[in-house]
Amino acid sequence: MKEKEARHIVTLIENTPFAGLSDEDLSTIRLHTAECTSCRSAFEAAYISSMMLKERAAESFEPSPFFQTRVLATLREQQAADSWSLGKLWRSTGALASSMVATVALLMVLTFAIPASQESTSAVSAFSPEAVLMNDGADDLVSDSEVLSTLYGAEEEVVK
User: Fold this and answer.
1) What number of other Cβ atoms are within 10 A of residue 88's Cβ?
2) DSSP letters of the chain?
3) CA distance 41 to 132
4) Residue 48 and residue 18: Cα distance in Å, rounded?
5) CA distance 9 to 40
6) Please, what is the angle between helix 2-15 and helix 37-58, to 10°?
7) Which of 42, 79, 152, 155 is the most buried (most CB within 10 A)?
8) What global pTM score does this model have?
9) Measured distance CA(2)–CA(32) in Å, rounded
10) Cα angle at 123 between 122 and 129, to 5 degrees?
11) Rounded Cα–Cα distance for residues 105 and 57 (Å)
12) What torsion, rounded to 10 degrees, do the Cα atoms 39, 40, 43, 45 define?
């Protein structure tokens, strides 16, 4: 019976704030702790902890005289450093933006201002995708045996 009562006392002390214990709970705890040393030490530890927390919560402290001034000055400095401005943005990305604009302008000049020559367009049309897929002009192609003999014939000459 005492072991069950001891567990009940320890559970009561662990689960209930010391200030929240009723008079009946306190009288039960006092009767039991008169006989049980382990429950008495648990009750005393809870009582001491409760008193220490009350004392610590009751303490008030004053910040140093210039605390508010220092905090506000630091806050203003950080806000000034973090402010967004067009000048800062241009300093960080100006070279990249300028090079991109110059590249686009050069490509526009090459595309629209300089006309394409007639010779280059005829060379492109000779190898159109349709001609390659339909195998037009197959007579002009080199056979596999000619390619192989050219490749291996050149190696034999180098070896000798």
Assistant:
1) 10
2) -HHHHHHHHHHHHHHS-GGG--HHHHHHHHHHHTT-HHHHHHHHHHHHHHHHHHHHHH------TTHHHHHHHHHHHHHHHH---HHHHHHHHHHHHHHHHHHHHHHHIIIIISPPPHHHHHHHHHT-HHHHHTTTTGGGSPPHHHHHHHHHHHHHHHH-
3) 97
4) 10
5) 10
6) 10
7) 42
8) 0.36
9) 9
10) 100
11) 71
12) -110
> pLDDT band for position 42 (50/70/90)?
confident
Give dist(CA 20, CA 16) in Å, integer: 6
Q: How far is residue 130's CA from residue 14's CA, in Å, rounded to a whole number?
A: 88
